[in-house]
Structures are given as C-alpha cells and as structure tokens.
Amino acid sequence: MTTTDADANGRAAAAAARPAPKPDPDPHGAPRTVTDTAETPPAAGVHGYAQQKDAHIKRLRRIEGQIRGLQRMLEEDVYCIDILTQVSASTKGLQSFGLQLLEEHLRHCVADAAVKGPEAIDAKVQEATKAIERMLRT
C-alpha cells in the first residue's frame, strides 16, 4: 500500500465516521424544503440518477481503477506515451459519466421543475447550463 492509498483511505474512513449535516433551518426554525430555494437539492433518493445508482457506482469504481493504474504505471516507470493513453481513457470515462448524469438530471429534475411552473424550470435550466459550462471548461 502506498502512502497515497493510506491517506485516501484514512480520509475516507474519517469522512464516513462523521455524522451527516443537518438541514439549515429558516429564520422561523423550520427546516428548508426543496421548494424554499432553487439551489436547494432534492431530498436523498429522489435524484435523477437514483434508479441507476448501482451502475454509476460500478462505473466510477472502474474509473478509480484506471487512476490507480496510472499511479502504478508511474511507480513502474512505464513509457510516457502509454501513461498518456491511460490518462486519455480515464478522462473520457469521467466525461462520459458526467454526460450520463447530466442527461439524467435533465430527464428527471428539469422535467419535474417543468410541472412546477416557469420559475422552477428557469432555475433548473440555469443550473443545468452552469453545469454544462463547467464541463466544457475541462
């Protein structure tokens, strides 16, 4: 096990041991709900990716394996071009995952906002547009 693996595992274990944050109450003491602000995410389990969660986790673990492979390649002094090929494959894997998640967001969250009215859909479309902008910068 490398120092990097130990650090990552230690941080992951510490994060898992922390209790989940409680929702911020409004000035009157009531917890915020999905309808309080456009930026408040939906409750757990109602995200667009919920039905594909296991497949997404499997996919991210495969990408994680590619990243660990990059670390091993460096440790083993593999040829630069071979490492760059693996970097490209890992990057494409993350981009593909991001696009799938974005599609699910549009199908579920934006479509749900459309039912709630023009303000809700405008907020979700703006949110999705900003996410697309961030993805295009990479």
TrEMBL record:
Composition bias, kind Low complexity: at what positions? 1-19
Q: Which domain of life is it from?
A: Bacteria
Q: Which Pfam families match?
A: Trns_repr_metal (PF02583)
Protein name (record): Metal-sensitive transcriptional regulator
Keyword DNA damage in annotation: no
Q: Which family does it belong to?
A: Belongs to the CsoR family.
Give the species.
Streptomyces sirii
What keywords are annotated for this sequence in UniProt?
Copper
Per the record, which residues fall in region Disordered?
A: 1-51
